[in-house]
Design brief:
The chain is of the alpha/beta class and 324 residues long. The chain contains eight helices and 14 strands.
């Protein structure tokens, strides 16, 4: 089967399309024919071995060591790729949640491997992945893109028990995580202020944001109020004067959280809940560009620029863009 090998940590050019053996599922695994995956910010961090810039000694060095232990010391041991959608081709004898032919989406976690035509996954949630039934009204491309934001946004918003009437600010509202976070917060009944660039203002409004702040405007900080929750969906690699002020724009008991703050537990319940919102017509996913597996280098170059809107998807099968 075709897969993307990472020949060493570095720029996008370290990625190569290779032929590898098709995996065989164990008794507690399913074999998934991957229809689509996505190039996420996390994929690019792993490929380049570039940890978030705000992490300092000794935490940064400890994180780098753990990353090498889990993923590989000189290069990743397995093909990259953290999110996927596809169809279950076969199941192990101990599998109960899924059956052959099920259309699924999810995270592969430390196992990675989604940049492949086939991948094996357990049905049990762990740091090696989580899996759920794909939303029936989404294409494989959309479902693969949804996985990343669904898990991250669900984790960072749920820990604060968002409820109706809360004021929430989301910094980086047009990205893969932020675009889902805006919609998720609205589904929970929050009043959402979104921060994004000029070109994405109307897009973010269409996602349900009550107020939008354009970070490119000189007077943007004057529009800040105080919020029960400020969620940095961009991460600490990027900063600005506005972002610093957002961190401080909190009510007395308000909280600031960033996507860099903690390891995220991979839970299929996150995917299940978001699927309910999608199938009810309350949530959509934004796709910026689509590439083939053979165009993976170009896809990583684009994501590295840091200006994508929503998600960058990799298609591995014909008709992956069709819903149903």
């Amino acid at each position: 089967m075709k897969a993307i090998a990472c020949t060493g940590y570095g720029p996008p050019e370290v990625l190569q399309l290779v032929e590898v053996e098709k995996p065989i599922p164990k008794k507690d695994q399913v074999l998934i024919k991957v229809k689509a995956t996505a190039v996420t910010a996390s994929d690019c961090i792993i490929r380049s071995f570039n940890m978030p810039g705000a992490v300092r000694f000794p935490q940064k060095q400890f994180m780098e060591l753990m990353m090498r232990v889990y993923i590989g010391f000189t290069k990743p041991r397995k093909p990259l790729g953290l999110v996927l959608s596809g169809e279950i081709e076969s199941v192990g004898t101990k599998i109960k949640r899924f059956k052959k032919g099920d259309q699924v989406f999810g995270w592969t976690g430390f196992s990675m491997g989604a940049y492949s035509e086939f991948v094996c996954m357990s049905e049990e949630d762990s740091n090696r992945g989580c899996l759920s039934i794909k939303p029936s009204n989404m294409s494989f491309q959309e479902a693969a893109a949804l996985s990343y934001g669904a898990v991250l946004a669900s984790h960072f918003l749920n820990i604060d028990n968002i409820h109706s009437g809360q004021k929430v600010l989301i910094y980086g509202a047009s990205g893969a995580i932020g675009s889902i976070a805006v919609q998720l917060a609205k589904c929970y009944g929050a009043q959402v202020t979104a921060v994004c660039g000029s070109k994405n203002i109307e897009l973010v409004r269409s996602l349900g944001a009550d107020n939008v702040i354009d970070y490119t405007k000189n007077d943007s900080m004057k529009l800040l109020e105080t919020y029960d929750l400020v969620f940095d969906a961009v991460g600490k690699n990027k900063t600005s004067e506005l972002k610093v002020q957002c961190e401080k724009a909190l009510t007395t008991n308000g909280k600031y959280v960033s996507v860099d703050d903690s390891n995220v537990p991979l839970r299929s319940e996150y995917l299940d809940k978001v699927r309910e919102f999608v199938e009810a017509g309350d949530m959509q996913v934004i796709i910026d560009r689509c590439y083939t597996l053979g165009e993976i280098v170009e896809a990583h170059r684009y994501v590295d620029q840091g200006h994508k809107t929503g998600n960058v998807v990799i298609t591995l099968a014909p008709n992956a863009d069709q819903r149903g």
